[in-house]
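Hi F.,

I've been meaning to write this up properly since the lab meeting, where we talked about keeping a consistent format for the predictions we share between groups. The idea is simple: the sequence comes first, exactly as it goes in, then the structure tokens exactly as they come out, then a line or two of notes. No screenshots and no reformatting. I'm using this chain as the first example so we have something concrete to point to.
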Amino acid sequence: MDRQKKNSLISSLILGSVLLTGCGEKSECELPTRHVHKYIKSFSNGSAITKYLDSEDLDNFGYKWTDNYILVNKVDEKFYQEVANMFLGRDNWDYLYNLMAAQKDYLEFFYEYDTIETYTETDSDGNTETKTRTVHHEGWHTNPYDSDNTGRVRLYHHRFYGYKIIYKNNKFSKVSSYAVDDIREIMDEYPYFPENCVTEVYEEFRFSRWDLPDLSPDDFNTFNHPDLNNKSMTLNHGFGRVLK
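Output, unedited:
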């Protein structure tokens, strides 16, 4: 087999592999009117996200095409394009609940130390001289046993945010919520969420360096947490504290 035929065969095999895996493959939907299809993305913990997309791709960044659809007008079509990277929270409560349950507070410890570094300098005559200098090192890590820890401690906590969609001057735009401890605090006013709607905040404390190995996030009563005992979409009356 000559090289040209061999390369042609390899290209055909690669193309066939791409088609078989569905990469870039389109549905055979021939509906002539404007519409959006329902897509589903499943996760290993058993939850899933469903949303409607203005697409005919069989695989849209992990979301699988279904033949369920709704008819839309031109304005609706723009709306679904605006929320393409988000989903409606109330249609996907299991996913959001599991996301909240997966977040855990954690501690980081500030360390600092100095080292002596040797270096050489060369002057204009080509003479070299060995010198030393002090180099300062500092940062945050999760090791409470490090002898260079100073006693400064940060407690990190996760909060959540969503979006509402505003239509003004013939355009849709997203408005982000403030961060909350429980998604149900905002789900009515900010009904749309990205897959990763998690952000971090922290408070800083100071302890003796010798106490650090015995610390855990449970020793702090700094932040509120989601009411994970309540799995419904309705927040118990009086629960939680909204922090803007």
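Notes:
Residues 108-147 form one domain.
The chain has three domains: 25-84, 85-107+148-226, 108-147.

If this format works for you, I'll send the rest the same way.

G.
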